[in-house]
Amino acid sequence: MNLENKLNKVAKYFDGLQSIGDKDKYPYVLFSLTDYNPPVLPDLIEDIADLIVEKVDFKKVNILVSQADRGGGPLTFAVAKRLGLPFSLANWYPRESRGHLVVENAGSASGPGFICINDINNDSKVGIIYDLISTGGSTIALAHAVIKAGAEIKTIVSAAENINYDGFQKIENFIGVKPLSLLKYKIVEGYTQVIL
Asked: Listed GO molecular functions (predicted)?
């Protein structure tokens, strides 16, 4: 299947879904990729990984980083396997282990907490992989941990960007790296609308 067909197939997973929760403050959408509701299909992860590897330059990256929960974990594994790169997944709960760093995750739509990441150091040239970026809060917290470790962020890529919250601009302002996404969507009258 060619890349355009894969992108259109991925877009269908994000398009026309109803938001839930407080629609005025933060209309939340349950996506297969992020919430496993409905359960995520392996082909979705495979298609997104193929698109990311084709569209993003990872030549200067020597390690991939994402969050362990939600869709970032399986997506990062699929991209790492294609590129032959190691990866480290950040956890929400600190664990005492060699080489770990903990930073507060205060500005995320997912809620407050801490992000703990292991074995990132000043030799690390990092590619951050995300399933979905909305407000940018958890991405900034993860990037903060990477920077605190002395590593350099080379690229940030997300399968999708929710443009209702200007998260990409907040991330670029904080890190100085412009994130990339395969597709964008917005919520209009309670439903997602994909923009390719």
From this structure: transferase activity
